[in-house]
Amino acid sequence: MSPPASRPRSLLLLLVLLLPSTRSLLPAPSLSFGINYGQIANNLPSPSRVAALLQSLNISKVKLYDADPDVLAAFSDRDVEFIVGIGNENVANMMDTSKAQAWIQQNIQPYLPRTRITCITVGNEIFSGNDTTLMTNLLPAMQSVRQALVALGLDGQVNVTTAHSFAILANSYPPSAGSFRENLAGYIQPLLNFHAQINSPFLINAYPFFAYKADPSGVSLQYALFEPNPGVTDPNTNLSYDNMLYAQIDSVYSAVKAMGHTDIDIRISETGWPSKGDQDEAGATLENAATYNGNLLKRIAMKQGTPMRPSVPIDVYVFALFNEDMKEGPASERNYGLFYPDETPVYNIGLRGSPTSYSSSLKTTVVSGLVGFLPSLVAALIIQ
Ligand SMILES: *[C@@H]1O[C@H](CO)[C@@H](O)[C@H](O)[C@H]1NC(C)=O
Ligand SMILES: *[C@@H]1O[C@H](CO)[C@@H](O)[C@H](O)[C@H]1NC(C)=O
Ligand SMILES: *[C@@H]1O[C@H](CO)[C@@H](O)[C@H](O)[C@H]1NC(C)=O
Ligand SMILES: *[C@@H]1O[C@H](CO)[C@@H](O)[C@H](O)[C@H]1NC(C)=O
C-alpha cells in the first residue's frame, strides 16, 4: 500500500527519526488480537472486501454474532480463526441434540476446514438479561451443542462457550474481591464446572468506558485509557494495577476462583471505546477511542498478562470492526468501529502503514501507532 502523495515530507522525516528509538523500546510486532465483526448495519462492505481488509491489517481472529454463510465462505483459505455465534433466539432449540447437530451440519461443517472455525458461542449476555427461562436453558443448550460436536467428531477442533456481560459481577473492586451476583450463582456454578470439564474458555465483555461514563468525576480517565496514572493497589494482594481493564479481568479470575475454579481460561470477548456519543455520554470522543484502542494494541503486542496472571497474555477481541448504523440505544452504540463502512479508519491507531489522516492528535497516535506496526510502516517508507 503506497502512502498518499499528499503526505508531507516532514512527517516522513519525523517518522524516520522516531523509528530507531521507538524500535529499541518496543517488543517485536505482533497483531494477535481479535476483532468483533458486527453487522447490524445496512451499508457494510461485502464479506470478500472485509476479508481483504483484515488481511491488509494482519488481523487473524474474528468473532461473529451469528454464522453468516457469506462471511464463512468468503474467508475460505484465509488464515483467520473464527468464533461464530448461536443467537439467543435459538438457544432453546439447541437443547435438542438432534437440532444442535443439524445446526452444526448446516452452519459449520460445510465451511470446515477451509474456514477455520474454532469456537461456538451459545447465546450472548444471557445472565445480565431478564429472561430466566433463557438462563435456565443456557447450560443444557451448551451441553447439547457439545454432544453434537462429539457425535460429529468435531469436539477436538471446535470449543463451546457463551459470552457474558461484565454486569454479571456484583463486585469488581478490589480485583481480589471480585464476585458474581448472588442470584446468578445457581447458573454460574454448573456452567463453570462444564467449562472446566470440557476445557473451554470463559468469555466476558469488559468496557472501562461504561465505568467512566457512569461516574466521570469518580473514575480516572487516564486509568481507564491505559495512560500514565498513579494506578491502584489491591490491598488484599498488594498487586498494583495501572489500568482498569486488567483490574476487571482479574476481578473475573477472582469471581471464578471463589466458585472453586482456577482451571478455566478467561478471554475478553469484547472491549472497546466509542468515538462518538450522546451529549450525556462522558468520554465518548474520537481522541479517547484512539487512545484506548491504540494503547490496548500496544499492551497486546507486549504479550502482557494481568497482575494475577502475568504469564498469560491477555486474549482480547476488540469491539468493533465497523461503525454499525442500525444499532439501537445511545449514539455510542453506533460508533464503536475502528472503520467506517467505506473502509476508511475512524482514527489512526497504526493498523495501516498509510494512515489517511494525521490530525491534531499526531503525537499520541503516531507513537502508539508505531507499536506493532513497524514492518508495514517501514515498507511504506521504502515505497515512498
Ligand atoms: C502479522 O502477524 C503475525 C502474527 O501475529 C506476525 O508474526 C507478523 O509479524 C505480523 N506482520 C506484520 C506486517 O505486522
Ligand atoms: C426485559 O428487558 C427488556 C429489555 O431490556 C425490556 O424491554 C422488557 O420489558 C424486560 N422484561 C421484563 C419482564 O422485565
Ligand atoms: C479451546 O479452549 C481451550 C481453553 O481456553 C484452549 O486451550 C483450546 O486451545 C481451545 N481450542 C481451540 C480449538 O481453539
Ligand atoms: C502488603 O504490603 C504490606 C506493607 O508492605 C504488608 O504489611 C502486607 O503483609 C502485604 N500483604 C500481602 C498480602 O502481601
From TrEMBL:
Signal peptide interval: 1-24
**Alphabetized InterPro entries for the sequence:** GH (IPR017853), Glyco_hydro_17 (IPR000490), Glyco_hydro_17_plant (IPR044965)
Keyword check for Transit peptide, yes or no: no
Mind telling me which Pfam families this protein's record contains? Answer: Glyco_hydro_17
Q: Which GO terms describe its molecular function?
A: glucan endo-1,3-beta-D-glucosidase activity
Q: Which reaction does it catalyse?
A: Hydrolysis of (1->3)-beta-D-glucosidic linkages in (1->3)-beta-D-glucans
Q: What is the name of this protein?
A: glucan endo-1,3-beta-D-glucosidase
